[in-house]
Amino acid sequence: MTDDKIKNAENEIQGVAKDVKGHVKDAVGGLTGDIGLQAEGKFDQFAGHMQQDFADLYEEGESTVEKIVTFVRDKPLLSVGLVSGLSLALGWLLFPRRKRS
């Protein structure tokens, strides 16, 4: 595993740990009637979910970039053609030609 994948896995594990800690705080706060502890638990759950989601998005983005790099390496001329065509289309959309009178 590369360093990025190890860090990503650690990030996801930390997210799960925060989520579990949040569930425990929420339950203990509910049993004792401590609204503040329940709120902390809800916040920890939210933070844990967000950390897990970020790790998932990072992994998906990494695989997409790898696919693009592979495509460009395998088909460089087609890649240049696609980028040129998209650039022309974007130019026509953003800077339309003016009619001369």
What does this structure look like?
With 101 residues, the protein is an all-alpha fold. It has one domain. Helix content is 88%, strand content 0%. It contains 3 helices and no strands. α2 (35-74) packs across α3. The radius of gyration is 24 Å and the shape is elongated. The N and C termini lie far apart (64 Å).
Q: Which helices and strands, and how do they pair?
A:
Layout: H1 3-32, H2 35-74, H3 76-94
In short:
With 101 residues, the chain is mostly helical.
Structural class based on helices, strands and sheet pairing: mainly alpha
Q: Report the count of strand segments.
A: 0
Radius of gyration: 24 Å
Number of helices: 3
Which terms summarize this structure?
101 residues, mainly alpha, YjbJ_sf, CsbD, membrane, CsbD family protein
